[in-house]
Amino acid sequence: MLNTLLKRVLWGIPVLWLVLTLTFFLLRAAPGGPFDQERVLAPDVAQLVAEKYQLDQPLFQQYTQYLQAIVQGDLGPSFQYADHSVNDLIALGLPVSLQIGFWALCVALVLGVSLGMVAALHANRWPDLVAMLVAVIGISTPNFVIAPLLILWLAVHWQWLPVGGWAGGEWTHLILPVLTLSLPFIAAIARLVRGSLLEVLALPHVRTARAKGLSSAAVMWRHVLRPAMLPVVSYLGPAAVGLMTGSVVIEQIFGIPGLGRYFVQGALNRDYTLVLGVVLVIGLMMLLFNLLVDLLYRWLDPRIQESS
């Protein structure tokens, strides 16, 4: 276990460095700058602004100074949000995105696993067809279509829920964004669970357990469910990052001040440090969730631990 943690950490450092390096130089290579959309500045004022943000220095020097600041935990000042550092903006937006993503992940797991089990236990019958139809619709319908429909029905027509906003994370403001964000993941998990369950149910040791007289519930919990969850666990790594960091579309539609919204604004405004900070946070979360998935995978399938 300790060797696994050490290997993941050692591999994560060069991966993060490579991601940050590519993002840094790609941002600088894009046309325009962080202050091009402002009114035309006088030459001396423009020079002072460039000196303040170290944009007058050679590109490689900017790069080395940024890496030094990253090592010290300083993500730099925001170019567009006055009097705010990138650390401040991430501290404001990340908890919002994490809260929405956490509940969306819980909803996706509960409903996705339940839907997949119903489909597998009634394979090729009407519950299976209905469940897979719902899954296909959930996967193929984008969020920017689902969100307005839910707003129209639940918020405008029936007036059960607020149209948008955050209001400090009140549960009434969480339902619509969480439901919209989780629907594609519910569909994907349901399909994975169905296929994996059907495969495990056909294994010889499961048939033997049934022949010995074990009930369907006992067979499911003792012999089927644990190995059937392996594909779902593999999917949870990138899915958890996508959910926890929030959806850009969801946060824009519902007016939620999350991390994804800051990322879009930073990209549009050429706010180099803000974009780099968000990329760094997403990269760290991707490595963390992949590590957790590896550890969970070893718990579900001890053969992996024995072979490593």
Based on the model shown, name its key terms.
mainly alpha, 14 helices, 0% strand, 77% helix, globular, 308 residues, MetI-like fold
Give your account of this protein's structure.
By secondary structure, this protein is mainly alpha-helical. It has one domain (86-307): MetI-like (MetI-like fold). The protein has 14 helices and no strands. It has helices at 2-29, 43-52, 59-71, 86-121, 126-140, 143-157, 171-201, 204-211, 216-228, 230-244, 248-254, 259-268, 272-300, 302-307. The radius of gyration is 24 Å and the shape is globular. The model has no long low-confidence stretch (mean pLDDT 83).
Whole-number average pLDDT?
83
Structural class: mainly alpha
Helix content: over 70%
Quaternary organisation of the protein chains: single chain
Query: Regions with pLDDT < 50 over 5+ consecutive residues?
Result: none
| Shape by Cα distribution | globular
Order of helices and strands: HHHHHHHHHHHHHH
